[in-house]
From TrEMBL:
<comment type="similarity">
    <text>Belongs to the cytochrome c oxidase IV family.</text>
</comment>
<dbReference type="InterPro" id="IPR036639">
    <property type="entry name" value="Cyt_c_oxidase_su4_sf"/>
</dbReference>
<comment type="function">
    <text>Component of the cytochrome c oxidase, the last enzyme in the mitochondrial electron transport chain which drives oxidative phosphorylation.</text>
</comment>
<feature type="transmembrane region" description="Helical">
    <location>
        <begin position="109"/>
        <end position="127"/>
    </location>
</feature>
<keyword id="KW-0496">Mitochondrion</keyword>
<protein>
    <recommendedName>
        <fullName>Cytochrome c oxidase subunit 4</fullName>
    </recommendedName>
</protein>
<keyword id="KW-0812">Transmembrane</keyword>
<dbReference type="GO" id="GO:0006123">
    <property type="term" value="P:mitochondrial electron transport, cytochrome c to oxygen"/>
</dbReference>
<dbReference type="InterPro" id="IPR004203">
    <property type="entry name" value="Cyt_c_oxidase_su4_fam"/>
</dbReference>
<dbReference type="GO" id="GO:0005743">
    <property type="term" value="C:mitochondrial inner membrane"/>
</dbReference>
<keyword id="KW-0999">Mitochondrion inner membrane</keyword>
<keyword id="KW-1133">Transmembrane helix</keyword>
<comment type="pathway">
    <text>Energy metabolism; oxidative phosphorylation.</text>
</comment>
<dbReference type="InterPro" id="IPR013288">
    <property type="entry name" value="Cyt_c_oxidase_su4"/>
</dbReference>
<dbReference type="Pfam" id="PF02936">
    <property type="entry name" value="COX4"/>
</dbReference>
<keyword id="KW-0472">Membrane</keyword>
<dbReference type="GO" id="GO:0045277">
    <property type="term" value="C:respiratory chain complex IV"/>
</dbReference>
Length: 174
C-alpha cells in the first residue's frame, strides 16, 4: 500500500513538473505550439457499451446552464420538457438512438477495399506484361495434343493409365 501511495505521489509531482516545464517551453519565439491532450485525465465519449462517461459533456457552463442546474436541484415536476432535454444535453452529447444510428462508414470501407483490389489487379496486369517471361510453348493446345498423341503411340501405362482407355483399332477413346 505504501508503494502505491508513493508511486502516486511521485507520478503527481512528475506530472506537475512536466506541465510547468512544457507550458513555459511551448511558447517558442513568435510561434504557438499546440499543447497535447492529457490522456490521464477523465475524458468524455459516447459509447453504447459504457453508458456513463467519466465526465459530463459540457465542462464550462454558461449563465443559462448554471441557472438550469440550480433548477435541477428542485422538484423535477416543475421543469418543462425542453429544460429536461437541455439538462440531459449538459451531461450527454447523444442519446442511445443517436448513438445506434447507422453511419455511412461502410461506404468508406468498401471504397477502400475496392480501391486496393483494383490497384492489386493493375499490379498483377503490369507484372504479367512487363515482368514475367512469355508462356512456354508447352502450354499451347497444339503442343498438348502432339504430346498426347506421342504418349499414345508409345503406349505409356497401358494397364491402368490413359493408354488403357484408348482404342487403338478404332483410333478413338473407349
Amino acid at each position: 500500500m505504501l508503494r502505491l501511495t508513493t508511486g502516486r505521489v511521485g507520478s503527481l509531482l512528475t506530472r506537475r513538473v512536466t506541465a510547468a516545464v512544457t507550458t513555459s517551453s511551448t511558447r517558442m519565439a513568435s510561434k504557438e505550439v499546440s499543447e497535447s491532450v492529457d490522456m490521464s485525465q477523465p475524458m468524455y465519449w459516447d459509447r453504447v457499451d459504457i453508458p456513463l462517461p467519466d465526465r459530463p459533456y459540457k465542462d464550462v457552463l454558461t449563465d443559462a446552464d448554471k441557472s438550469l442546474k440550480q433548477k435541477e436541484k428542485g422538484p423535477w415536476g416543475q421543469l418543462t420538457k425542453e429544460e429536461k432535454i437541455a439538462l440531459y444535453r449538459l451531461t450527454f452529447c447523444k442519446t442511445y438512438p443517436e448513438m445506434k444510428q447507422q453511419t455511412a462508414e461502410w461506404k468508406t470501407v468498401m471504397g477502400g477495399i475496392f480501391f486496393f483490389l483494383g490497384f492489386t489487379g493493375l499490379v498483377i496486369w503490369w507484372q504479367s506484361v512487363y515482368v514475367y517471361p512469355p508462356r512456354p510453348r508447352t502450354f499451347d493446345d497444339e503442343w498438348k495434343s502432339q504430346q498426347l498423341k506421342r504418349m499414345l503411340d508409345m503406349r505409356i501405362n497401358p494397364i491402368q493409365g490413359f493408354s488403357a482407355k484408348w482404342d487403338y483399332e478404332k483410333g478413338q477413346w473407349k
